[in-house]
Amino acid sequence: MTPILLPIWILPEDVGAQHDTTPEDAGTTTGDDTESTTDTTVTEITQPEDTQAEVNTPEDVTEADTADTQPIEPEPSSKKYEVKDGCAEPLEYASAECSLVDCADNLMCVGDGHCVPAGPFLLGDAKMTYNKPAIADATGGRFAASWYHVYNDNQGTKQMDIYFQLFSADGSPVIDAVKLDDDTLIYARSPSMVRMGNGGFLVIWRAQAGITSGEIKYMARVVAPDGTPKDAAFQLNQTALVSESGLVTNVDSPFARRLRNSNLALSWMGQSKEKKGNADVFLRVLNPDGSFLTDELPTGADTAEHEGSAVIADTENGGLAIFWTATNNPPKGNKDEPMPAKTTVVKGRIFDQFAVANGEVFQVTKSEFGYEGMPSAATFENGEIYVTWKTREKLGTTSETAIWGVQLGPDGQDMGKQQLKAGFDPQGYYPFYAPVGTGDNERAFLVWHTIAPVLDGIYMRRYYKTEDIMDCEITNVSGELMAGENGVRIMPAIQSFEDGRTLISWGSSFNGKNRMMVRYLK
Q: How do residues 65-88 score in pLDDT, each as one tens digit?
């Protein structure tokens, strides 16, 4: 096989709902599950001559329909999909508000009557780098984005800062980008964000003293509904943490979720100063205004295991479900008894509205693969939880990588639903991780990226709760390359809105600079 030169990025094998991969902030692309966080120089991207003309996709991948951008008059009982041969075919539909709106050419109507670009579009300022963008819904049909910007200061020292910005539904800026971190540690990166009950936002991120060593802090800051930062940034972790260099997971991305009682649940992973060779999952709950409700909470995870990639789903009555990746640490072997193979599975636990553990730790995946990790999760209106994860035949290889999903009950219980494969990459490129959002009480949207010669791009598939099936075909969200786009699309995030819109964001390199792309889906 002819090798393809890709930028040397951090490609985490095991992270939370949003992963950390940027051309400015380097690592490895070896395909091995052991993570390197060594900072290196960006490698030039080279693409085949015909790459600008089209994106190569397998036969079962279809381009999201953008040709018919005019809203249609829906029937009162119009359906969003129909079942054919055990899978779902999405149908064109319009909300009641959109049935009364006539959008201009190249626009489509979504949600409560918002005319937005019909395909992918760039967001933000070309002078800034947009690394690992996170998105959240905002009041008045708007949305918010947070990301980290990488640059060199006047002395030539690399810096990373967290930024926040509000946008109208069509992507036009409402305010200028504002800096949130306070430079306590010079590398502020990997933000996650959630809208608060009062319409404001809580942005959380990881701050570190060095790329491969030094102190680690997880920080947060409250932002008012109009985008104005409030008070100062504050620290979340109570356990002193140090760099996890050499572990088999990358722990950059914390995770935030607003619960049904408006409390804010936060998770992260890290290695304490007292431990070597494995990390733990941490959980903390905040009041609706962002003040602390609890200290760090024990998840019940096995401290002998290496745990990471923690994500949270809301449950009924203001509770939460936390899921994480657990890798065992088998004892060293000898000449008579070789060391057992490491295995990785997804585990979870339910906490009630008082942040008290409700039941024991349970295993989500079935131990059918050597690697089952990197979960994401979202909750349907009626309480069912949809969980996705990644599999590989064997840890530390480039064997086929696949994304799976399953519907669990409100308490995480097995409902006898199918474990469905959403997508795969036969060459094993990664991260290949699938954040999920519930667009309504019937559908979940799974989105992932691949970095490979054939499946390079951002892809999406819907899951349908009642029928326990998926779309018949995978949708190519990122589409054809734009002018100046290098062709490597990474780190998708997803936000479903109350009015039925679903927005997907991702990073893409334009002329060597990481930019933010977004696209609406229905």
A: 433 444 444 443 468 999 999 999
Which structural domains are found in the chain, ordered by start? 49-70+81-521 (2.120.10.10)
CA distance 106 to 467: 34
| pLDDT tens digits for range 352-384 | 999 999 999 999 999 999 899 999 999 999 999
Instruction: For residues 140-152, give the mean pLDDT.
Output: 95
- Please give the Cα distance from 292 to 62 (Å, whole number): 46
Is the Cα torsion angle 234, 279, 284, 405 positive or negative in sign? positive
More reliable by pLDDT, 147 or 10: 147
Tell me the residue type at 46: T
The three-point CA angle 424-426-429 to 5° equals 85
Token pair 């991207």: residue: 45
Q: Is 60 exceeded by the pLDDT of residue 343? A: yes
- Written as one letter, the residue type at 44 is E
Burial class (CB in 10 A: 0-12, 13-18, 19+), 374: buried
Residue 178 neighbours by CB distance under 10 Å: 14
Note the Cα 284 to chain centre separation in Å.
20
Q: Distance between CA 123 and CA 504 in Å, rounded?
A: 12
Nearest one of 402, 418, 473 to 90, comparing CA atoms: 473
